[in-house]
Design goal:
- The structure is a single chain.
- The chain has a domain of 139 residues: Immunoglobulin-like (Sandwich), CATH 2.60.40.
- It is built from 1 helix and 13 strands; from the N terminus they run αβββββββββββββ.
């Protein structure tokens, strides 16, 4: 019986040792297994920068190459006193100044040759393109006075030295219609405006 009891004890001890090895083996395996690290996903947001260029300022809004006209509403003949031209940023300005009233007008491109009002004589004009400025119920002399003194005493041909306007030429004053032409270096857009105090007809030509 002692021998049998001893054998049973030895058997129980052997079984206990095997069980410890399995759990320990599992812990060792877990302890020595390489750790798997999952890197957190990094959200990337694309940034798009839109640059909007500031629009350029057009000094001649509404300008074009089509005729610009306005009917005469002045009962008294508008008397021309001055013609001048000057360069501005983006345009050349031509001004017809009157003493007493603002006339009607017809401003348009015409095909050379330019002919003088009344006589039909050819008027030479410098430039590659010609704009005719016809002002109605307007003159440059006061017909109400004896000897009809001239109200405009400047030259009938001007070369202002501006970028676009090569020459301004008087092309006639006949039966209440006063005509000047602008010889241009290019066929460009133009704009017509009027001013008062004193009355002025203004023609702006786009320059380069």
């Amino acid at each position: 019986m002692r021998r049998g009891a001893l054998t049973l004890v030895v058997l129980l001890l052997a079984l206990a040792g095997c069980g410890g090895d399995d759990e320990g083996g599992a812990r060792t395996s877990a302890a020595t297994r390489p750790a798997t690290t999952t890197a957190p996903a990094t959200a990337t947001t694309a940034t798009t920068t839109t640059t909007t260029a500031a629009p350029g300022i057009d000094p001649l809004q509404g300008a074009g190459t089509k005729p610009v006209t306005a009917p005469a509403t002045n009962e008294e003949t508008a008397l021309l006193t001055a013609v001048r031209a000057a360069r501005h940023e983006g345009y050349d300005r031509v001004v017809f100044e009157f003493r007493n009233a603002l006339p009607g007008y017809d401003v348009r491109y015409v095909t050379p040759p330019v002919r003088q009002d009344g006589s039909g004589k050819v008027v030479p004009v410098e430039g590659a393109a010609v704009v005719r400025i016809r002002m109605e119920n307007a003159l440059d002399a006061d017909l109400r006075k004896p000897s009809a003194p001239r109200t405009y005493t400047g030259p009938a041909r001007l070369r202002p030295g501006t970028p676009e306007v090569a020459e301004l030429v008087r092309a006639g004053g006949f039966e209440g219609v006063l005509t000047w032409v602008a010889g241009l270096r290019d066929r460009v857009d133009f704009r017509v405006t009027t001013l008062r105090a004193p009355p002025r007809l203004v023609v702006d030509f786009r320059n380069h």
